[in-house]
């Protein structure tokens, strides 16, 4: 900031009852929310989630669709499982992944809608 620029400062105190009535979540919840958004900060993980939004896939299918190695996909799936964005099921030796619930697809679609405004 230049020396000749001023910063507007409020010299009065207002009671913002509508804000005071809104409950701000506790710190643990806020840290969890921040961690969730960090996971969404990686384009590869977003691509995996979009692939899974089409339906259940195994690691080799996801790797093929995204043109990536199975090792790279597995690493990212581990992160997505930890934050509970994806779930999995075993069928013999094959593990199939899918979105954990409808909230994940909602977050993706609302995020996309926001950036396309």
UniProtKB/TrEMBL annotation:
GO terms for biological process: response to cadmium ion. One of its GO terms (molecular function) is DNA-binding transcription factor activity. It comes from Blautia pseudococcoides. PROSITE patterns: HTH_ARSR_1, HTH_ARSR_2. Residues 25-117 form the HTH arsR-type domain. Keywords: Cadmium resistance, DNA-binding, Transcription, Transcription regulation. It comes from the Bacteria. Pfam families: HTH_5. Transmembrane segments: none annotated. This is Transcriptional regulator.
